[in-house]
């Protein structure tokens, strides 16, 4: 019988002794943003330049950045 694993091997063997303690809500926010600092933008020009806080930090915009997807050029799937 073959068992399917839903947990990647890297997570099973992860050393958690050096990880900070954070709340479930904080972890959820980090998961949704996919970044550590939790910054978001609300640019209206498409996030093409370093004026965009996300692009300036070389991270992708997320669903939390813009109310509508619009013409954002800094989304993960657009890269």
Structural description of this entry:
This protein has 79 residues and is mostly helical. The protein has a domain at 40-79. Helix content is 23%, strand content 0%. The chain contains three helices and no strands. The mean pLDDT is 76.
Radius of gyration: 17 Å
- What spatial form do the alpha-carbon principal axes imply? elongated
Structural class: mainly alpha
Kindly state the number of beta strands: 0
Helical content stands at 10-25%
Provide mean pLDDT, rounded. 76
Order of helices and strands: HHH
Distance between the termini: 40 Å
> Largest sheet, if any?
none
Strand content: under 5%
Poorly predicted segments: none
Q: How many individual helices? A: 3
Key terms for this structure?
single chain; elongated; 3 helices; 79 residues
List strands and helices in order, with pairings.
Layout: H1 9-12, H2 24-33, H3 53-56
Summarize it.
The chain is mostly helical.
């Amino acid at each position: 019988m073959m068992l399917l694993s839903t947990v990647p091997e890297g997570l099973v063997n992860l050393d958690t002794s050096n990880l900070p303690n954070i709340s479930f809500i904080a972890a959820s926010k980090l998961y949704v943003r996919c970044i550590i600092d939790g910054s978001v933008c609300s640019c209206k020009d498409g996030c093409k330049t370093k004026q965009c806080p996300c692009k300036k930090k070389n991270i992708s915009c997320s669903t939390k950045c813009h109310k509508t997807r619009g013409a954002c050029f800094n989304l993960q799937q657009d890269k």
